[in-house]
Design goal:
It comes from Paenibacillus phoenicis. Keywords: Signal. This is Transporter substrate-binding domain-containing protein. InterPro entries: Iontro_rcpt_C (IPR001320), Solute-binding_3/MltF_N (IPR001638). Pfam families: SBP_bac_3 (PF00497). This protein is α/β, with parallel strands linked by helices. The strands form three sheets. The chain has a five-stranded mixed β-sheet with strand order 9-8-10-7-11, sandwiched between helices. The chain has a three-stranded parallel β-sheet with strand order 5-1-6. The protein has a three-stranded antiparallel β-sheet with strand order 2-3-4. The chain is globular and about 55 Å long.
């Protein structure tokens, strides 16, 4: 009996100890319910860090990295193209290099087809586009623009022996070539087609191919600006010509993702300073052989 009684007393003692431990554990878990060990961040701290990154300062990131990634076509001389040394060159490239220098960083070019530039920008693969992106209200809904850095006049281009097309109304029933995803394509589809009547629009990923087709008679006309066409025509000996008056005038700006006001302001300031100190004029004359038109 004595042995059995001892066992009962031991059981009761252990049960009491267990109850005390459980009670203390419960109190600990309910004390300041949100408390976490000092070595681990609380949920609030983690959320605070995340929200700070959501509105990150792109200008700061670029300066910290020391590089601005610029998208352009690389096939659109004299604006941007591969030179004999297989380096990106041209008017846009020189503007990009000068802007980068004034931001205190280097430029890294990312050449690609024009139709992919804005999607690449929005996906964060590049920081800016400097590739003759025309400023339009439609594009302003997707991306932000700096002040214009060039104005281009667009003309109708036909073969030298073609006298049947001299104005937009002559496009009816014809095959017209234009750059895919460009403002000129939107202009033909949204403005010219409804006024002129049906004509076929053939799109191209680069200017050279469109001029090859024009020269070979596979299309009847294209529209473009003379600055872009001259070096290609001179190099390849295409028998083409510009006809009539300019059908429109476009302004191109540096394009960036939306909601980066500090970056946009810095780019604008760089362009303003370039124009004020004569650097812009020097770049313009280098590529076009004339003074830029008065703004």
């Amino acid at each position: 009996m004595k042995s059995k009684k001892s066992r009962n007393m031991l059981f009761l003692t252990l049960s009491a100890v267990l109850l005390v431990v459980l009670a203390l554990t419960g109190c600990g878990s309910n004390n300041n319910g949100n408390n976490a060990p000092s070595s681990a961040p609380s949920n609030n701290a983690a959320n605070g860090g995340s929200s700070a990154n959501t509105g990150s300062d792109l200008l700061n990131e670029i300066k910290t990295a020391g590089v601005i990634k610029v998208g352009l076509m690389g096939t659109y001389a004299p604006y941007n193209f591969l030179n004999e040394n297989k380096e990106i060159d041209g008017f846009d490239a020189d503007v990009a290099k000068e802007v980068a220098k004034r931001l205190g960083v280097k430029v890294e070019f990312a050449p690609q087809e024009f139709s992919g530039l804005i999607p690449s920008l929005q996906a964060g693969k590049i920081d800016a586009i400097i590739s003759q992106v025309t400023i339009t209200d439609e594009r302003k809904q997707q991306i932000d623009f700096t002040q214009p850095y060039i104005t281009n006049e667009v003309k109708i281009i036909v073969k030298e022996d073609n006298d049947s097309i001299t104005k937009l109304e002559d496009f009816k029933g014809k095959n017209i070539g234009v750059g895919l995803g460009t403002n000129d394509e939107s202009y033909l589809r949204n403005d010219v087609l409804p006024q002129v009547g049906n004509f076929e629009i053939k799109t191209y990923d680069d200017v050279i191919t469109s001029l090859q087709d024009l020269n070979a008679g596979r299309i009847d006309a294209t529209i473009n600006n003379l600055y872009a066409l001259k070096p290609i025509v001179d190099k390849n000996g295409y028998k083409i010509k510009a006809v009539g008056d300019a059908i429109k005038s476009d302004q191109a700006g540096i394009a960036i993702r939306k909601n980066n006001p500090e970056f946009l302001a810095a780019l604008d300031q760089a362009l303003t300073d370039m124009k004020a100190d004569g650097t812009y004029n020097t770049i313009f004359q280098k590529w076009f052989g004339e003074e830029p038109p008065a703004e």
